[in-house]
Amino acid sequence: MSNTIYKGYYFTVSPLLPATEILIAELGYAGFESFVETDEGVTAYIQKAEWHQDILDDIQILKSDEFEITFTSEDIEQTNWNAEWEKNFNPIIVDNQVTVRAPFHEKPTTNYDIIIEPKMSFGTGHHETTHMMIQHILNTDFENKSVLDMGCGTGVLAILAEKKGARPIDAIDYDNWCYLNSLENIERNKSQHITVLEGDAQLLPGRSYDIVIANINRNILLQDMETYTSTLNSNGRLFLSGFYDDDIPIIEAECNKYGLQLVDTLKRNNWVALKFQK
């Protein structure tokens, strides 16, 4: 990984909403793997090996007359990544209970302090979906619950689950960078009960959990829903995010097929996070 080069795109967006959300979603489908929402718009990153000259041709919002979107781009050596995050990554506080911060930020006074060196991994709490998943965890009893954090990104949700008493916890991501970053963050937060695995839903057969957390895009959720639900213990709970308000009916219908009932919904801008009970 030491020679990995990323392409960084710096988008200026006006008006910001809902354009930034649509832009992130479309860039995600195009292969961009990490995003930072800024005061001016969005910064997006893609591995140079996955990039091609026409990468933005299918980004429909760039052709819209409703928004004014401009951008610049540059190659970024992985060794410069920490400096990039130091420029963009500010600490966040969720419901006055959880702080997600980088190591160079001051220690907060909230109940839960999570230190993340995000690098190229998704899941800092800045994005609406991660923010709402943190809220779901805060509002749920995790004491001695077995937990799966599927698509763990930085590992932030698994780390918070442990801080709330969960054990044991599996954190899984198919992306090697997320896998390595989660290992670093788990060590940084002195977590003792989290096992990080590199892979996808194919790792799940034979495993069982009281709570499954999956903050992934809609298509992956629909594809793997049967596998997720098969791992849930009786009365287990499933937290889902990574999709829009308009996607709720199709997600709920898929969950209902496997005996899950929607019990709680959080919304933030156009994004949602749903809680299901088995």
Q: Class of the largest domain, according to the CATH hierarchy?
A: Alpha Beta
Main pleated-sheet profile: 7 strands, mixed
Determine the N-to-C terminus distance. 40 Å
Q: What is the strand arrangement across the widest sheet?
A: 10-9-8-11-12-14-13
Please tell me the CATH architecture of the largest domain by its name. Answer: 3-Layer(aba) Sandwich
User: Pairing-aware structural class of the strands and helices?
Assistant: alpha/beta
Give the CA-based shape.
globular
Mean pLDDT rating: 91
Radius of gyration: 18 Å
How many runs of DSSP E, i.e. beta strands?
A: 14
Assigned CATH superfamily of the largest domain: Vaccinia Virus protein VP39
CATH topology of the largest domain: Rossmann fold
Number of domains: 2
Helix percent reads 25-40%
Segments where pLDDT lies below 50 for 5+ residues?
A: none
Order of helices and strands: EHEEEHEEEHEHEHEEHEHEE
Strand percentage lies at: 25-35%
- Count the DSSP helices: 7
